Write a sequence for this structure.
């Protein structure tokens, strides 16, 4: 079952002659990915290289992981490469406490960048990660519990937005991966942090998800995955509507500057308007800092709803400013002239929206 699923995925995601960088941490999932893809490489005419990222967070244990992966690759006759990153330096270099990533988030960002660097150096067209079905479902449930948009319910995609990263094990469950490892007598490394209940995902993985499967639905993983696939298909259709609305409403006027036409917002379906604003903010680099409250305030600003203040400028997190220019609105970064905020006769009263708040300050 697992090999058949992986074989189909490689057929969908790669082409004969491609070189694939396999992201191998040394855990069971990536060890199985390395072993199984190497076994299918000749069938799909793929060149394989194993890439490992050392995060420098677990001392000798991390050093041993790197050496173990190098040896595992050598045993299979696979090329090996690695890079070291420092998540703590990324955290230390972020001044804003709200914007500062957790250690796990910092490691994830640096790992993604390092894998791309390794792939570029080695001439690999694809980066294959070992995300599997349980990871997919855990991601969806964590987003649901914390609050998410409909797009968030699509979970992890089989291929990244830019097409570079592929996840050929996404339809394979953790149990199937464990069975494959046992049948082939594979050995792997255990990351001690994966057992810590300090992390939400570990609690979900070890306690909550098994309970849901036991008490509610033995096929929960497949049921959630089917829901995510339906949401993904709906999302692709909605994206085409957003793209059409973007061409009608938004003009990129310069580097990191956009002009949004005033006309069209009043009669636009709310769901479409929200997605259009989200896309605008993501392009401007404000995605992580912008909440639903900010989106509501922006939509009210577009629609001329400015209770208590004839605001002409809306200040947003990460230095973004939205200025009313009569026939439309200009989104950019940077400070407005002091005269705008200090001189009420300038006609540029400012409405500030604090992070985590929907109220003007």
């Amino acid at each position: 079952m697992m090999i058949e699923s992986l074989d189909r995925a490689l057929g969908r995601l790669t082409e004969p002659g491609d070189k694939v960088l396999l992201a191998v941490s040394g855990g069971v999932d990536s060890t199985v990915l390395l072993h199984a893809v190497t076994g299918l490489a000749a069938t799909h005419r793929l060149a394989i290289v194993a890439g490992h990222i050392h995060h420098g967070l677990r001392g000798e244990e991390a050093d041993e992981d790197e050496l173990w992966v190098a040896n595992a690759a050598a045993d299979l006759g696979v090329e090996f490469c690695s890079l070291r990153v420092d998540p703590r330096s990324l955290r230390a270099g972020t001044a804003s406490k709200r914007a500062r990533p957790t250690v796990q988030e910092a490691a994830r960002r640096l790992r993604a960048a390092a894998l791309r660097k390794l792939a570029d150096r080695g001439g690999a067209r694809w980066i294959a990660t070992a995300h599997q079905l349980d990871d997919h479902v855990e991601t969806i449930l964590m987003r649901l519990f914390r609050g998410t948009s409909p797009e968030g319910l699509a979970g992890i995609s089989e291929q990244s937005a830019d097409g570079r990263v592929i996840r050929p094990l996404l339809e394979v469950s953790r149990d199937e991966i464990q069975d494959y490892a046992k049948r082939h007598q594979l050995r792997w490394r255990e990351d001690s942090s994966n057992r810590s209940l300090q992390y939400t995902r570990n609690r979900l993985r070890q306690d909550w998800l098994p309970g849901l499967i036991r008490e509610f639905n033995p096929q929960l993983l497949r049921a959630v995955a089917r829901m995510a696939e339906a949401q993904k298909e709906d999302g692709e259709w909605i994206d085409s509507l957003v793209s059409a609305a973007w061409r009608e409403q938004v003009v990129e006027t310069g580097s990191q500057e956009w002009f949004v036409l005033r006309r069209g917002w009043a009669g636009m379906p709310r769901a479409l308007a929200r997605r259009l604003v989200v896309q605008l903010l993501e392009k401007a680099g404000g995605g992580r800092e912008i909440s639903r409250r900010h989106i509501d305030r922006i939509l009210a600003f577009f629609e001329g709803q400015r209770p208590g203040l004839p605001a002409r400028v809306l200040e947003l997190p990460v230095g973004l400013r939205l200025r009313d220019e009569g026939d439309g609105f200009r989104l950019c970064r940077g400070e407005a002239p002091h005269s705008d905020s200090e001189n009420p006769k300038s006609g540029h009263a400012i409405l500030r929206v604090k992070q985590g708040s929907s109220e003007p300050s």
User: Anything to note?
Assistant: The first helix runs from residue 2 to 13.
